[in-house]
């Protein structure tokens, strides 16, 4: 019987059946999708609007847009890969440093461990046993210090590849939306009007979904996302129109 009156099987049953926490766990994937789709919707949209302002044909806008989507997807995906790889390299460096400190200065590390626990309201007589238990298991001690002292979680070995693929695919999906009207309408002005309508609707939907899944105000997020896209495309169109005239 445990100190709180529950046996281990009873505690496992309570955790599994009575305490289902509703947390959104794939925050990194959501972040990558947001980065890819938001840029994919906005950049090709602004490019197409700018070229429309320069009064070029739909076919040229489509070719330039597709080239931009391809280059943007590669660039964004590579950026995501390098960022995730840098985080993994940083974790490994800090892990080795912390491991060396546990071996060379265990008393200092134990004191730091006690200080961390005291910050959560634990009294000395309460956390001494925890510190001693961690000292008996160096791997758990190392994991504890990495998480609670340095605030670092062990990265997924596939995180860099997953980030690159997710961002790149999201960018392509987002980038095709403002270009679809140019595949249908041969006249650039008609295609531009359709592109503006379709893309703004897509930005509103995407902004709403982004706000919903990230815990922000969905309607506010939808308005902000659409506004940014509208400003970018209007600026590109106006600049192209100015130099064209």
UniProtKB/TrEMBL annotation:
UniProt keyword annotation of Acyltransferase present: no
Pfam families: VIT1 (PF01988)
Cell compartments where the protein resides: Vacuole membrane
Protein name stated in the entry: Vacuolar iron transporter
Assembly notes: Homodimer.
Organism encoding this protein: Xanthoceras sorbifolium
InterPro entries with a match to the protein in the record: Ccc1_fam (IPR008217)
Sequence intervals crossing the membrane: 33-54, 60-84, 164-185, 191-209, 221-240
Catalytic activity: Fe(2+)(in) = Fe(2+)(out)
Domain writeup: The cytoplasmic metal binding domain (MBD) is located between transmembrane 2 (TM2) and transmembrane 3 (TM3).
Family: Belongs to the CCC1 family.
Function (record text): Vacuolar Fe(2+) uptake transporter.
Entry keyword set: Ion transport, Iron, Iron transport, Membrane, Metal-binding, Transmembrane, Transmembrane helix, Transport, Vacuole
Tagged with keyword Lipoprotein: no
């Amino acid at each position: 019987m445990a100190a709180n009156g529950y046996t281990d099987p009873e505690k496992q049953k309570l955790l599994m059946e009575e305490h289902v926490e509703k947390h959104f766990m794939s925050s990194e994937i959501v972040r990558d999708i947001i980065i890819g789709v938001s840029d994919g919707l906005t950049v090709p949209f602004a490019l197409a609007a700018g070229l429309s302002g320069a009064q070029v044909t739909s076919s040229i806008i489509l070719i330039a847009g597709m080239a931009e989507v391809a280059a943007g997807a590669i660039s964004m995906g590579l950026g995501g890969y390098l960022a995730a790889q840098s985080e993994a390299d940083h974790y490994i460096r800090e892990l080795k440093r912390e491991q060396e400190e546990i071996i060379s200065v265990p008393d200092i590390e134990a004191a730091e461990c006690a200080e961390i626990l005291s910050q959560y309201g634990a009294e000395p007589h309460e956390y001494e046993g925890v510190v001693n238990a961690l000292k008996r298991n160096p791997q758990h001690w190392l994991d504890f210090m990495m998480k609670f002292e340095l605030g670092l979680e062990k990265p997924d070995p596939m995180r860099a590849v997953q980030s690159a693929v997710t961002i790149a695919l999201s960018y392509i999906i987002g980038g095709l939306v403002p270009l679809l009207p140019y595949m249908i309408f041969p006249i650039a002005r008609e295609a531009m009007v359709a592109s503006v309508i379709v893309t703004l609707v897509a930005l509103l939907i995407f902004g709403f979904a982004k706000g919903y899944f990230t815990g922000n105000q969905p309607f506010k997020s939808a308005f902000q996302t659409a506004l940014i896209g509208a400003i970018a495309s209007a600026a590109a169109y106006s600049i192209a129109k100015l130099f064209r005239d």
